[in-house]
Amino acid sequence: MAEKRHTVTAFSRLAGGRLWSACKDLLPIVLVIVFFQLVVISQPLPNLGEVFWGSILVVLGLGLFVEGLEMALFPIGESLAQALARKGSLLWLLLFAFLLGFSTTIAEPALIAIARQSGEIAAKSNLIESTSIAPYALGLRLSVAISVGVAILIGTLRILRGWPIHYLIIGGYGMVMVMTVFAPPEIIGIAYDAGGVTTSTVTVPLVAALGVGLASIIQGRNPLVDGFGLIAFASLLPMVFVMAYGILIFA
Amino acid sequence: MLTLLFTIRDVLPILGLIVGFQLLVLRQPIPRLRRVVVGVAYVIIGLALFLVGLDMALFPLGQTMAAQLSDPEFLTGVKNSAPVSSWTSYGWMYCFAGMIGFATTIAEPSLIAVAYKAHEVSAGTIDRLGLRLAVAAGVAVGIALGAFRIVHGSPLYLYILAGYVIVIVQTIFAPRQIIALAYDSGGVTTSTVTVPIVAALGLGLSEAVPGRDPALDGFGLIAFASLFPIISVMGYAQHAAWKNRRRGKKRSKEERHAV
User: pLDDT tens digit string along A143-189?
Assistant: First the structure.
């Protein structure tokens, strides 16, 4: 009986909270598109039916995804991050930081989307074989995931050692500039975009928990100033690593 | 079915990490195991549904809007006219790109959180709504500029490197407490729903404009959308600090006068 009531409340919470917030992500876009179709283009949207059902799947999928993360992975991940920070074993902490960055990035839906698009475009322009779209996209995602892992590892060291954040950021910018000179032009666009994609649904909450957990344990640090900045660094290194991947693949 | 298998593969690393560390390093059982199992099932099914919807709705939406707004007939008003390459003809395209940027950013929950924190860090000198408007306007200008770049065909790195130089200069002058927050705000504008639509918009646009190659010119809109918030958050903080200083100066002058 209690079990049943629990399921019912879980469902109503899903319908009320998560689905609504997924809707809110889509709603501004829908409004702008409706405005343009009515006022500027003055035609109904082609393939409206499929877009409608697809949008329902997107909202439902994203809602379930985030609800599942918050039920299963975020609570354990957050308590793990805190426990490891408190335990004080540097090796385990750094290993955890790297793996956290890597594995959350592999599961990032926006990165899956953009890697697939990049593969299709590269095949269309005859840069790669059409049979190697999937391996190319996976390679792209793996380089982003490894780079986010490294970035979170360095960011963790930064919080522990108290390095100022802007040294890392400016160093990161420097690396991006240098790599841009050497990278083949076909990779630069997707490399720059990869930086903005890494930080969405899965990575940010867990990494922020790690950063705030670390900064609040170390004495004399302000979590607001120290705990953040991990995410910024995690969007610079992917550009560098994806350009390196481009040098490997295209050059 | 294949999608479901791939999603399981995508979710496996994070699952392995958390379960592995919990059991092997901390040597503690998983709390509330049943709930965790249900949650993992939600994650896998949700991701699979999202990916199917992506192909049905989000990619086509971006592509269709790009195709409609760069259709020669729409641009010139003449039937069967040749593709247009002049950048001045794509005004509605820039307008659409900017509006998508503004609308998705102003409603973004993580931006609301950033604005709240900035208000706190700056001891109230940074206005929450003002900051959100500044960031949304920054993203709008950024994506519109990115669309212009695709039509115009100038190299992406010039714009981004110029942006970096601005960020570095601002970093030197901006109030210390705001810097880390500003850097992190770069990620807030690119939600999971926005990224595929904006990417498809750029690719569709680069396919339609004559002389542009999607592989070379199509990407980069998201890079614009994540660079501009950093500039606008620091810019807004600098503006607030400057206004505060001026008010302080004015008051001390008035006090001197009164004496």
Answer: 999 999 999 898 888 878 878 777 888 888 889 989 999 999 889 99
Do B129 and B247 belong together in one domain? yes
In this predicted model, what pLDDT tens digit does every residue of B140-191 receive, in sequence order? 999 999 999 999 988 999 999 899 899 989 988 888 878 877 887 776 667 7
pTM (two decimals): 0.86
CA pair distance A83, B199, nearest whole angstrom: 39
Q: Which residue type is seen at A65? A: F
Same domain, B136 and B30: no
Q: Verify whether the Cβ–Cβ distance B223 to A192 is below 8 Å.
A: yes
The count of structural domains within chain B is 2
Sign of CA dihedral B247, B251, B254, B256: negative
Residue B57 and residue B125 in one domain? no
User: Is the same domain home to B184 and B149?
Assistant: yes
Same domain as B97, residue B35? no
A185 chain-B contacts, CB cut-off 8 A: 155, 216
Look up the domain containing B10 and give its range.
1-69
Q: Tell me the helix, strand and coil percentages in chain B, rounded to 5.
A: 80, 0, 20
Contacts of A36 in chain B (CB under 8 A): 65, 69, 92, 96
